[in-house]
Write a structure and sequence with these properties.
This protein is an all-alpha fold. It folds into 2 domains: about 1-50, no CATH class; about 55-125, AhpD-like, CATH 1.20.1290. The chain contains 7 helices and no strands. The protein has helices at about 5-15, 20-25, 35-45, 55-70, 75-85, 90-100, 105-125. The longest helix is centred in the C-terminal third of the chain and has 22 residues, at about 105-125.
């Protein structure tokens, strides 16, 4: 694999956690391996590996963009990642305020619901 792929896997583990990445890697098939390589290199090895903005800021942007575009499936994963990126619940709430104004209240409302559920699950797991 390339250096970008290796850097991407390292960043992916740091942001999403070893357990998440291990589950995703174990679930890979011949069919989706090229896609997994693409996102590891492009999303994690290039975008998330950049130091131009902080991981906290990148988390907030990612959650807001997922909500704004209606890609709700990945919001819980990125909410869980905030424990490692430093984005607080207040940061996420602020980002979703922007979504409400610029992309629509229903999308922000649904994202807030997912965030609340995920934070509650994280709290339960921490106890």
């Amino acid at each position: 694999m390339s250096q970008t792929y290796d850097r991407g896997m390292a960043v992916r583990r740091e942001v999403l956690g070893e357990a998440h990445v291990a589950r995703a890697e174990a679930a890979k098939t011949e069919f989706d391996t090229p896609f997994q390589s693409l996102i590891t290199e492009s999303a994690w090895g290039t975008v998330w590996a950049s130091d131009r903005i902080t991981r906290r800021e990148r988390s907030m942007l990612t959650i807001a963009l997922l909500a704004a575009t209606g890609n709700f499936e990945e919001i819980p994963m990125h909410i869980r990642a905030t424990a490692r990126t430093g984005a607080s619940m207040a940061d996420v709430a602020e980002a979703l305020q922007h979504v409400a104004i610029y992309a629509g209240v229903p999308r922000a409302n649904h994202a807030l619901k997912l965030a609340r559920q995920t934070y509650a699950e994280m709290e339960e797991t921490a106890q």
